[in-house]
Specification:
By secondary structure, this protein is an alpha+beta fold. Helices cover about 30% and strands about 25% of the residues. The protein is built from eleven helices and 14 strands.
């Protein structure tokens, strides 16, 4: 490690002020991605701004026809939320498969979304449900928020404070995960809200999370795994690494999508 200044603000306004005064600073919202790269000297921020004591950005709330989750709500608390289990179990199931107990009891939904790891689970849930990411400055639709691998629409000085998910009656998430890290080699979130169908894929695309319009169109006729039988996506644009080829990932998208829909209608 190396020297840096550590800040622990108690309000979003204080955190934003510290961020504006320290352009090289990084926000600490769990640290499972940030601290490892700091140890490897791949990131050397002049300051860390710990959000763990900031008021008003923790918890799961039912607000009309949506569920609002504070950015610093830990994965384990999302998974065990009585509100989510009652109103949207498909979303509650997502963090239960993240990493291991240590990760789930420290990592946060806001940190995961802001980092936008191409293999992370929450980006698929946000895009697959049409969530709205709420910052200290504005509201951003999930379709506009995720802009590429480790890239988002967040601007300088902008901090995620909450994420709002519309309540849907049918939603399911399934993933083919790496046995060591728990990251998704391919993960699919599928949902049905009235006539709107969404299918979002994580882990597979070389440009991060994405939707599959052909699957969505097929599911509009009948929201059933059978509607996706025989459908696949092109291997072009899929990730290629030691774990899976682009062709294998493209094949898995169809398999995992059918499983996600099966969960949604169960």
């Amino acid at each position: 490690m190396y020297n840096f200044t550590f800040h622990r603000p108690t309000t979003v306004r204080q955190a934003a002020g510290l961020l504006s005064r320290n352009p090289d600073a990084k926000l600490l919202a769990g640290g499972h991605s940030l601290l490892p790269v700091m140890k490897l000297r791949l990131a050397q921020p002049s300051a860390l701004i710990d959000l763990s004591q900031v008021e008003g950005i923790v918890g799961v709330e039912l607000k009309g026809r949506s569920i609002s989750i504070g950015a610093m709500t830990r994965h384990a608390d999302v998974a065990n939320s009585p509100v989510l289990k009652e109103h949207m179990p498909g979303l509650a199931s997502v963090p239960g498969s993240i990493g291991d107990p240590q990760v789930r009891n420290r990592g946060t939904i806001g940190g995961s979304i802001a980092n936008n790891d191409p293999n992370a689970d929450y980006p698929a849930a946000c895009l697959g449900l049409g969530a709205t990411i709420i910052t200290n400055k504005r509201r951003i639709a999930a379709d506009d928020f995720f802009t590429g691998m480790f890239s988002t629409a967040l601007e300088e000085g902008e901090i995620i404070v909450r994420v709002s998910f519309p309540i849907v009656k049918k939603a399911g998430y399934e993933k083919f995960k790496h046995p060591a890290s728990g990251f998704a080699l391919v993960g699919v979130f599928a949902s049905k809200r009235g006539s709107e169908i969404r299918v979002a894929v994580t882990g597979a695309g070389s440009n991060g999370v994405f939707r599959v319009p052909t699957f969505e169109e097929a599911l509009k006729k009948r929201f059933s795994p059978k509607s996706l039988e025989g459908l696949t996506i092109p291997a072009a644009g899929m990730n290629a690494d030691i774990h899976a080829t682009p062709e294998y990932r493209a094949h898995l998208v169809g398999v995992i999508a059918r499983r996600a829909v099966a969960k949604a209608v169960a």
